[in-house]
Amino acid sequence: MSETNEIDRLPVEILLKILSNLDNDDIQRCKFICNRWNRIIMNNRIYLARMPVKSRIFISNDGELLIQLQKFAENTVYTSEIARFDTQLFRQLELRSLEISSIDDTIDDKTYDTLFNCLLESIQKYRQRQNVRTVKLVSIRITERTQSYFLSLLQSLAYTDFRIENCRFTKEVFAYILKQLSAVVTHVEWISCSTDTDPNCADQLITHLANVTKLELCQRHNNSFVVKADHISPEVVCTFLEAWINARNAPFFTFFIQQCSDNWKLIFLNECDRRKLPQCYYEFASRKNKLSHVKVRFINRSNSCEMCPIFDVPARSAGQLICYSRYFRDF
């Protein structure tokens, strides 16, 4: 008796156990072994590896709500209106990334119901919760009328990478986002976002990230933060720096701050002196790791400030004759 026939005689449970260890390409090849294998794979597709795709939902120039599906590392794009989209496609696909962009409060309730019912059905029915790694919101206006839709969507996903740009949130959604940053999200990009009650909520965000760093929550998740804001108060920046230089497992971060005038810079330096945060050429040495420091760079032509950590080069000190790895200092 051939080896193939012996495998064919195995119970379905054993075959599924074998197939669960294969990637999507191998699964596709296994479908052609015989009709029994093809039938088992098709009946249990959502429990096996599937083709990874990224999805983008947006409003077209004609005002239609569209969904795009694209394979990773390929230019082929499938586009459909949300109202006509066949959710059974997600039976064969693994949704790795979800982006929602350019959706505001002008969309009626019926369209919102159609959109989020489609997403929630796809996530729950076709076991996509654990697959979605990245959630990106771009140019979204969330109001009290629409916040329940977005909260339901975010709560239904187990994402670890959260990216938001030019969005406006309600107080409740912003509070939920901060909670997620402490719990499961390992990377966050926050670019020019606000809330209904605070046009510049970056201060609250940085204060929260300082607490995450201070409580060593980054040790579990290896977090990283990217924040770009029009304004962050110098006192809040010092609070984060103080937490970072005292943390044993300090996270990677990049801050881009606009509107950093000479007065902002003066307040920042005075606050550093008051908190006894020593610096040399705007390099703040870690107190827990001799090879780590934070580099702060002021750009006069744009009145902006950039800062990020360097983990393998010690900070400069007063009177130092040797400049370690100066190429790292001008990022």
TrEMBL record:
It comes from Syphacia muris. The lineage of its organism: Eukaryota, Metazoa, Ecdysozoa, Nematoda, Chromadorea. This is F-box domain-containing protein. Residues 4-50 form the F-box domain. InterPro entries: F-box-like_dom_sf, F-box_dom.
